[in-house]
Amino acid sequence: GPPPVFNRIYVRDPHKRLGVSYDASEMEVEEARSFLLSQYGRHERSREAIEDAHDRIIFESFRVRKRSKINLKTNLKKKLDESPPWVRKLASFVETPKSTIILQRAALYAAIGVWSVMNAAEGGPAFQVFVALGCCIYFINDRVKSLSRAFILGLGSLFIGWTLGSLVIPSLSVSVSLQRGSLELFTALSSYVFLWVACTFLK
What we know:
Blueprint: H1 14-18, H2 26-40, H3 44-82, H4 85-91, H5 99-118, H6 126-144, H7 147-172, H8 180-201
């Protein structure tokens, strides 16, 4: 027999046409589309009406998200402009890269951390710290095109990370007797975090 016809073809509101609420998630919109297409997909006009409603909802959702991101950036910039000079100066050293770069460098330093742990029995993590520092200097220099600045930021981050690690870790482990090698390892791991932050966000 003839394919069933979608009874909301001429409903103008895309949400009402798909039968979803205005605060429906994209997954709920996709599920509604799939369900309706399974029922009325054989009828061309019905299929077009369902697809049109789906596309309009998704596009509007994307537009709202984009607008909210722009508003957030504008508000942050306004807050920064109104902040004290030292805050603006500090913010000028920070730059947020793409999420892929953040994750790649986090994975690199996590791998160096695992390497340090795996080789802990063979000696201190001096070589791994040297590799981590070298990577940090390389990445910063690649961004700022200044080897001297890269050295200063890299060595400064290592110094801060190592100093804080050597001060904080023993106080967190009062009930645990840390051997010298273990303390060096945990301090090295804390320095990797600071080196990752430096090579990823500082400029």
